Amino acid sequence: MSIRLHSEGGAGEVTGSKHILTIDGARCLIDCGAFQGKREEAEEKNRALVPDPESISSVILTHAHFDHCGMLPLLAKRGYRGNIYSTPATRDLAGVVMMDSASIQARDAEYLGKQAARKGQKFDWQPLYTEEDVIKATGQFVTVSYNRPMPIGDGIKVELYDAGHILGSAMAYTHARDRSGREVTIAFTGDLGRKNKPIIRDPAIIPAMDYLVLEATYGDRLHEGTEEAIDKLTDIVNQAAARKGKVIIPSFAIERTQELIFYFHLLVDAKRIPEIPIWVDSPMAINATSIFQIHPECYDEETHRAFTVHHENPFGFNSLHFSSSVQDSKRLNEYQGPAIIISADGMCEAGRIQHHLIHNISDPSATILIVGYMAANTLGRRIRDREKEVRIHGDLYPVRARIEEINAFSAHADYQEAWDWMSSLDLSQLKRVFLVHGEKEGLTHMEKFLREKGVKDVQIVRKGERYEL
Fold first, then answer.
1. DSSP 304
2. Cα separation, 4 vs 224, whole angstroms
3. Do 425 and 382 share a structural domain?
């Protein structure tokens, strides 16, 4: 009789979250995300998935980012038939993310197949999953509102609390009970958000727990203040406009894009930036923005008041345009004059952002603005690290555009914010903190920082290692 925790992804790395809670042999999977990084490594890790997926008894999805939900269709394809528990907003957003991934994979297979045929090469690569697999996985979702305890199998119950990370994001507070009657409580933060972010609420205060599984994406970094970040954003846009150059913003389609729209709306209204065209060039971001509008249960008080009391739309104003077609996207690259282009993928690994980078990264009048986490070995990380040239679609491009970075728009708590949240909880029964979702430097710093704050038992989780609870 035992209760154990181990990770098949998101341990010692930021993407690919897959944590497994085992109670007397029954396995609950918390998140089933895609690994993002070097192409060959990502392909290998994503195809590996998790051992024996048919034997998993239940799945909890904390939120709809690709590195947390992206491999659910492959899980269903390989035989998982159980429920996937999430908030209603997470279900809707995850459907968009997974379908977008299936579509990209299908296009990649077609494109790469044609390239191989021209060269007389053999081509047998197949997508990880198809749109049909996405539909199958979406049909397995069971939605659970915040603060509603839900039994999800023998010996396990979960209650979802608002994580304050993206729309619908949740911390999974789980009660596990083995056959001997022994009970433990384990809280999985998923991705922990930050206070005072626009649109969504602050991370919730959760009950006392025995074990805390805590993310450490920014375990060794502190964010700028919001006012400082808005001032910096204002300066970047005004300087680009004076140079008649474009500002290219690789942005996650969910949360980050909507937050940027919100801030640009404020800046245009206050006449702090000129009314230059602002384009959202991401079909997924457009779909996600419409989903934001139908989930008021996730809004903070300010956004709720704007929508329901004053009937204002924070996601719509005169300077804002949505690119709904490939032709619209291509025309943006021919546009002369200053403009702001927000496009996905947030780590620059796929999607329309790559075409905007091809057309602008060697232009000294252009600015590439980094507003989110860039995982190791991604194109976004190479740009953020200001490499002199980068490879896109097989060709090398010199980096002559200005590279700027604003950390304050990150949806992840930094190490001080994570501690501020932790210290507001009842930690009297806390036995151990497990650190996940971080790179080596961040995890090591976070471990040291928490120990200095008086947390006696801090464990950096290693992939595949079993931890008895």
1. H
2. 38
3. no
The per-residue pLDDT for range 375-400, each reduced to its tens digit, is 888 999 999 999 999 999 888 999 99
Q: How far apart are CA 71 and CA 62, in angstroms?
A: 14
Place of tokens 């210290």: 423
- Judge whether 305 and 313 are in contact, CB under 8 Å: no
Are both 42 and 183 inside the same structural domain? yes
Nearest of 355, 358, 343, 370 to residue 284 by alpha carbon: 343
Residues 338-369 as b/e (b if ≥16 CB within 10 A, e otherwise) read bbbbbbbbbbbbbbbbbbbbebbbebeebbbb
pLDDT digits (tens, 9 = 90+) for 113-137: 888 888 888 888 899 999 999 999 9
For the stretch 38-84, pLDDT in tens is 888 999 999 999 999 999 999 999 999 999 999 999 999 999 999 99
Judge if 10 and 120 occupy the same domain.
Answer: yes
Are 60 and 134 within one domain?
Answer: yes
pTM exceeds 0.85 for this model? yes
Which CA distances in Å does 63 have to 73, 74, 447?
A: 15, 17, 25
In order, the DSSP letters of 77-131 are: HTT--S-EEE-HHHHHHHHHHHHHHHHHHHHHHHHHHHHHHHTT-------S--H
CB 346 within 8 A of CB 412: no
Task: Give residue 315's pLDDT band: very low, low, confident or very high (50, 70, 90).
Answer: low
How far is the C-alpha of 186 from the C-alpha of 230, rounded, in Å? 37
* Residue 167 Cα distances to 200, 259, 344, angstroms: 6, 11, 17
